[in-house]
Q: What sequence folds into this?
């Protein structure tokens, strides 16, 4: 399975002129087009929707006080459905160090044009009213976390927040994320395991060390998942369609669905196996489902709904 390249926290100062998006509050808004899917509820404190009419106040002005991360997405974009829950979960966990502004490009095409978004998802970090870093494409959570850490360190002086000098970015985490993006699973696993088991000499016992270890654990789960997906036979989908009772085939197709951004469909498939299969297939499907849950934020609405369905299927 081809993985996207990891994002780099390269500077974008001067690369994008956002003045065209200022002072548009009095401009008539374009009528909203009906969406094919219901909007995902978001945390109004740390995650919020933004349109051109309020972009200046919600993004540009706010970015003079705290980092604002803009998520350019659309309802039809499958990679967006992978990345957006990751960003939303991290924003909710940030403690207000940064906020996530979500922009539906179908409803706000001018914003997408100003950012030069040739493809989505596109994520842009805004500080002091100007873009400072950006990346495109769905990225693994460890890579997104590292990108955010780099950006926060970069903009800390702007907000009068100096990062602890004795706790630098762990180069092993950067290397592990890059290896994961390159499908070098053995290297990624070795690096993530080293971070998890040994921590760092400079930060042993600190909050940042604990955060790195948690990130390493998440990275190890993703390595195991991607290795499993890469080994799936091309005949798995046909086998699952021909024999709904083939538990192994159903598990493989569920993995493929998660990798393609159709987590809800994968969860429903495995819950169906739990409902209809005798032991040991029932237990096997339940354990696989719980493993897949761990790839997502526990607060993800899709995971919450699937957990309820699983509980109903079991009891």
A:
């Amino acid at each position: 399975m081809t993985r996207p390249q990891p994002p780099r926290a390269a500077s974008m100062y001067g690369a994008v002129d956002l003045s065209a998006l200022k002072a548009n509050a009095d401009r008539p808004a374009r009528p909203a087009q009906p969406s094919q899917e219901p909007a995902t509820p978001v945390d109004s404190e740390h995650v919020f929707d933004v349109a051109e009419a309020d972009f200046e106040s919600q993004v540009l002005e706010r970015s003079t006080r705290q980092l604002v991360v803009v998520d350019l997405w659309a309802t039809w974009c499958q990679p967006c459905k992978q990345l957006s829950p990751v960003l939303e979960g991290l924003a909710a966990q940030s403690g207000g160090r940064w906020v996530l502004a979500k922009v539906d490009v179908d409803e706000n095409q001018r914003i997408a044009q100003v950012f030069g978004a040739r493809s989505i998802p596109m994520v842009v970090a805004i500080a002091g009213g100007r873009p400072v870093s950006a990346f495109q494409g769905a990225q693994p959570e460890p890579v997104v976390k590292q990108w955010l850490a780099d950006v926060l360190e970069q903009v800390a002086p702007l907000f009068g927040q100096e990062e602890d000098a004795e706790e630098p970015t762990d180069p092993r985490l950067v290397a592990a994320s890059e290896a994961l993006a390159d499908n070098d699973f053995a290297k990624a696993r070795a690096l993530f395991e080293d971070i998890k088991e040994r921590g760092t000499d400079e930060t042993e016992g600190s909050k940042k060390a604990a955060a790195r270890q948690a990130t390493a654990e998440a990275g190890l789960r993703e390595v195991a998942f991607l290795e499993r997906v890469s080994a799936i036979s091309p005949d798995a989908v046909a086998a699952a369609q021909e024999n709904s009772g083939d538990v192994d085939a159903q598990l493989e197709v569920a993995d493929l669905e998660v990798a393609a951004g159709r987590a809800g469909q994968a969860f429903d498939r495995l819950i169906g196996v739990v409902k209809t299969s005798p032991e040991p297939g029932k237990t096997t499907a339940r354990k696989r489902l719980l493993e897949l849950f761990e790839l997502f934020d526990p607060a993800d609405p899709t995971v919450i709904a699937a957990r309820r369905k699983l509980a109903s299927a079991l009891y």
In short: The longest strand covers residues 67-73.
